[in-house]
Structure formats: structure tokens, C-alpha cells
Amino acid sequence: MLRRVYSERTGPKPCAFAVDATKHAKVEQDRKDRELHEVADPHCEVVASAETGIRTEIRLLQRLKMSLWKKDDLEKVWEVGGLLASWGEDLPDQVSEAELVNQELDSPERQLRLEQLLRQNADPNAPDRLGSTALLCAAAAGHPELIQPLLDARAQVEVHSRFGATALMGAARAGHLEVVEALVKARAQLEARNERGDTALLVAATNGQLKVVESLLTAGAQLEARRDIGTTALMLSSIQGHLKVVEALVRAGAQLDARDGHGLTALRMAARGANTAVEAARFGGHPEVVEVLRKAGAQY
Fold it and tell me: Is the whole model's pTM more than 0.90, yes or no?
């Protein structure tokens, strides 16, 4: 027969059996929550650990770039921007090395396993090391079949990761149109912002995701939303050379001569400080974007 031991100072002490049961329940819950993340994205939980160091270095470069913006050192800004772009291209390869566990599942199997875990009370709002929930992982990985089951289990649509990203931003960044549409239907906030002040539209424009940009605009996203340093979707797509996105934003009525916090326009950004499309090509700019903006009436 189990006895409860009382102390004059602390009251009843839990017996060893109860403590062990509590520990076991927590371990089991953690296992289910972790597996839910892994089903949502096969390398979500593993990558959370592997990405931490990479993301830290990227964030340091981003802060350096912002500091250079404030000092109007444009030459260094372009240099750091190029380095950040190369990191962005290399990141998937670095992350893939961490993909050591969890066999790839096809869509029906993935959905079935996720629903099983949810029925077993896996927590859809449990965060990983980067603050991402299963919904954020599924959205970023592009699994539209998982979105509704997670929402039905009361996954929070507006939860932010440690970097301020929402599920809608993650899907927008990677160009997962079906996921974007599902989240918009679930009333995801179009103007939610990450820690740099990006909205989903700004994220999509920066990454050249034309279909997502068009979908977000149709849904009512603010065309002239600005990042913390004053850049618009048109500026961000221009500086990256995303011609089709620039054309779509111009058609939508984007302000051609809007200026960021440093007085730069989309045209000046695309030209990299040059005065003509020919010079822009020499300076590493985007002459085709320069031509589109000039024809639309943009001024330097």
C-alpha cells in the first residue's frame, strides 16, 4: 500500500510512483510532439538544431548590411547583399546534411500519420528549438494536405517563430501557392510582420515568387507595405532582379518613385547606382528591370 509522506514545512510529498508516472507522461508527450514536427517536415526538428549556427551568422550579416545602409556605404551594401544571397543558395545543401532521420512519406501516408498523432493528443502548437510549430513546418515544406488537419486540431495560425515568421510567410518565401491559399482561406493575417518588418507579400517579392505575389494581392495584401528600413515590394523585387514580379507589381499600381529610408527608388536599386541600363549591366545591376521601370515612367 502506497503512503503519502507529509512534512510540516512542505506538505504532502509525491510518492516515487507518481513522480515516475509524471516523468514518463512528459517523455511520451515530448516524443509525440517531436514526431509531429518531423511528419510535418521530415527534417524540421533536426534542422532546428543544425540551422541555429547558420542562422546566427546570417543574422549578423543582415545587421551589418543595415548598418551600412545607415552609413550610405552602398558599395559595401551590395557586397554584403551578394554574400547573403550566396548563403541563401547554399543553405538548403547545408541543411540537407542534417536530414538523417525519418523516412520520406508520400502525401497520403504523411497525412494519415499526422492525424494519428493528433488523435493521440500530440500538441499542434508545441514549438521546436526555433519556435516553429508543426503548422509552420508544414507550410514552409509545402504540404497542403496537412494544413486543414492541423487547423482542425486548433493549430494557431498566427504563431511566430523565433525569427518572427508566420506560416503564411514560410509558404510565401518558398512559393507554395496551395498552402498560401489555404492559410489565406483560414484568415491568416496578411499584414503580420517578422522582426525585419516583412509581410508575406514582401517576403514573396524578395524571393521572386510571382504566383504567390499575385495571390496575396488578390487577397488584399497592402501593395505599399514597407520593411523597417522603408523598402517596398517593388524595391525588393527590383534589387533582386525578379523581372516578372516587378512587372506584376507595376501592373498592380505600385508607386514607382517611392523612396526608402535612404532616399533610394526601385529604379536606383535595380540600376545599382548607374544612370542607364547599359551601365547597370556593368555595375552588376538588372538592366531588364531598369528598362521596365523606365518605360513605366519611373525616375531616378
Answer: no
